[in-house]
Amino acid sequence: MNSMLEKYDKYVVIEREEKTKQIKFYRGKIEVAKEWNDRNVDLFLYRDGKLVNLSIENPDEDKMKKAMEKAEKILSHLSPSPFEIGTGKNYRNEKIFDRNILDEEKMKDRVEASITEGMKYGKEVAGVMYASLEKIRVENSLGVEMADENSSSYLSIRVFSENSSGHAVSCSRSMGGIDEMVGKEAGEMASASKNAGIIEEGKYDVILAPMAFANIISNFGEFSSALAVDAGYSFLKGKVGKKVCSENISIYDSGVERDGIFSRKFDDEGVATGLNEIVKNGVLQRYLHNGTTAALHGERSTGNAGIISPHPWNLIVEGKKENLEKMIEEMGKGIIIGNVWYTRFHNYARGDFSTVVRDGAVMIENGEMKHGVKRIRVNDNMERMLKNIESISRESRQIYWWETEYPVFAPHALIRGVNITTA
């Protein structure tokens, strides 16, 4: 293998092995348990200004040899493209690792306990739990050879009560970190949003619960990728050093967060991950870079490769914190939004988007929950909304599920004047 790699000016080899278990439950009972074992190798090979990328599933010596032969045939047909490998060896490995996270009995115990809590509030409980163990190794032409092991798990639960529902998740790098009380959290939101009515379209003060706020921040993290900026798919283009959020918040990306489920010792180029301040007191500080985008911008890699596209690891929101009860009181009249999904951007360069409100929306008047709200969506501009954040709650929760692509340690967020339309 090494002799074949020597033909190239630059290369990166990424080997991944992942074991995953899934438990599905509905109607208040565990119904399905599955297991996957995946192993693959990604090759990034660069010669004469051209880059070829190949992925080999369940690799063996014969498959690797054929892949290298295929790369030689493909290379001559490719157009030139820039490719640089980032550098940075300040490796940290303080993250939690749970070697026993795939213990199926412990998974079932967590699921059953959360179902029990959820059933106190609703007629039906449904959801899914995943747990994974990952081994990853990166080798590159700069002499880096690094290996890492990671564990992760998340439990997603929905509680249905008459014509309302609530949704909550718990995420951790250890099975002991999964909070079975998310069933209660989802149930309380379902109960609070009963007797839902239609409201008029217009501007409303809102409190986004962690599930909803994480969706917004995860998308913001994608916009902070230098490739998104360079490709014209980010409203953050040309705004480093400028205000893009409320001065009441700062946003960080961390690849070294102790319980962050996407934390890793190094990125896909072998560069050490770390803590990157994306926004400080509302002002954009930097984009997230891999080796190639860093070279194009005259910067250093931030340890966020994705070789093709830089991306965040775990996003953290800090800022002006209040007790949730005080935030509700200060809002006066407005809406608490439990969750959103189907977030779609009408214009990436401006940040115009819409998203459907689901799993609990409650009208607040004079600091009290009055009734549920149904058939609404947020139809607004991301930068304008982020600039209108007045405060965030003291407590945060790590949020990750299929509508939130990158984990976010998300608080509740009080945002003034959000544009609400009806479905």
Kindly describe this structure.
The chain has a domain at 2-186: 2-Layer Sandwich (PmbA/TldD fold). The protein is built from 9 helices and 18 strands. The chain has helices spanning 2-5, 61-75, 104-119, 182-192, 210-223, 226-230, 291-297, 324-331, 382-387, and strands at 10-26, 29-47, 50-57, 124-140, 145-161, 164-172, 202-208, 249-254, 275-280, 283-284, 314-319, 321-322, 334-347, 352-365, 368-372, 376-381, 389-401, 404-422. The strands form 2 sheets. The chain has a 6-stranded antiparallel β-sheet. Strands 7-13-14-16-18 form a 5-stranded mixed barrel. A hairpin with a 4-residue loop joins strand 4 and strand 5 (145-161). Helix 3 packs parallel to helix 4. The chain is globular, with a radius of gyration of 23 Å.
Short description:
Helix content is 20%, strand content 44%. It has 423 residues and is of the alpha+beta class.
List the helices and strands and how they pair.
Blueprint: H1 2-5, E1 10-26, E2 29-47, E3 50-57, H2 61-75, H3 104-119, E4 124-140, E5 145-161, E6 164-172, H4 182-192, E7 202-208, H5 210-223, H6 226-230, E8 249-254, E9 275-280, E10 283-284, H7 291-297, E11 314-319, E12 321-322, H8 324-331, E13 334-347, E14 352-365, E15 368-372, E16 376-381, H9 382-387, E17 389-401, E18 404-422
Parallel strand pairs: 7-13, 11-18, 12-17
Antiparallel strand pairs: 1-2, 1-4, 2-3, 4-5, 5-6, 7-18, 8-9, 8-11, 9-10, 13-14, 14-15, 14-16, 16-18, 17-18
Helix pairs in contact: 3-4
Q: Could you report the average pLDDT, rounded to the nearest whole number?
A: 96
What is the number of E strands? 18
CATH topology of the domain at 2-186: PmbA/TldD fold
- Largest sheet features: 6 strands, antiparallel
Structural category is: alpha+beta
Shape designation: globular
The percent range for strand residues is: 35-45%
